[in-house]
Amino acid sequence: MEYGIRYIVGTDLSPIVSDLALKKEYYALLFIKSAGCTLYFNQVLLDFPANSLIFVPFGTSLKSNPKESREFVLIYFTESFFCRSDWDCTFLQNFFSVSVDSATYRVLGVPDEYLFYYEFVRTHLEMARMQSPESIQHVLAFNIIKQILLLGQVYLGDRHSAKFMEESESALVVNRFQQLILEHVSHEKHVSYYADRLKVSPRKLAMYTKEVTSKTPKVLIADGLIRVAKRLLANSRLSIKQIAWQLGYTDENNFSAFFSKEAGESPKNYRNNLKR
């Protein structure tokens, strides 16, 4: 399944963690109900407040609290399900900020006047799953999930991802830059290569990326490389040496040093943590 909705109580989350949230790199949206809820994020037990919406990027280790009896709603979807255009993919990447730290999650308190939204989402996603043909199901679900993320971006006051809603030259160039990174970073890591493809000077590209993301082109390239590396570590059976070669590193140790510096843990530990 490329998307789905589940009602989770206590240990109900355990059977789906390795198959759903980790190996296939699902993003997750958690609707915490009026009673609140506790669950483990990357081996840390967190207590989430009542009536909150949690945005969880791929690669995050989710584990239920066996002592928990309060229910929450889990909506999950893949990157390929959401990325139906370059804009969608770039928005998703920037909203979740998954390229550097996949352990990051975001919390949005839902005002009392919007509590009906829980029921709205549940009802319409369930309706989407019953539609035929399957293509209609996916379009309905996609539109609902996209609406949730857009509302999250608005109410969280996310200036960086909001930039991608603009049609300014800088936003369009940076959008395309990040797409090119994901397509070519395995064999090309020089800023000049991307600037040439975008038909701008390296200096102008740096000015645009600073304006839109507050990052340099080199940092965005490193972010993209880590993003691809995490995908391969989580979703493939390639050895770390094979992944290093695939990403353009002839020396596995150099790749491991780069990954450890950018991700805060070694490739081996990252992969092992996903299996817990």
Automatic annotation (TrEMBL):
<protein>
    <submittedName>
        <fullName>Helix-turn-helix domain-containing protein</fullName>
    </submittedName>
</protein>
<keyword id="KW-0804">Transcription</keyword>
<dbReference type="Pfam" id="PF12833">
    <property type="entry name" value="HTH_18"/>
</dbReference>
<dbReference type="InterPro" id="IPR018060">
    <property type="entry name" value="HTH_AraC"/>
</dbReference>
<dbReference type="InterPro" id="IPR009057">
    <property type="entry name" value="Homeodomain-like_sf"/>
</dbReference>
<dbReference type="InterPro" id="IPR020449">
    <property type="entry name" value="Tscrpt_reg_AraC-type_HTH"/>
</dbReference>
<keyword id="KW-0805">Transcription regulation</keyword>
<feature type="domain" description="HTH araC/xylS-type">
    <location>
        <begin position="175"/>
        <end position="273"/>
    </location>
</feature>
<keyword id="KW-0238">DNA-binding</keyword>
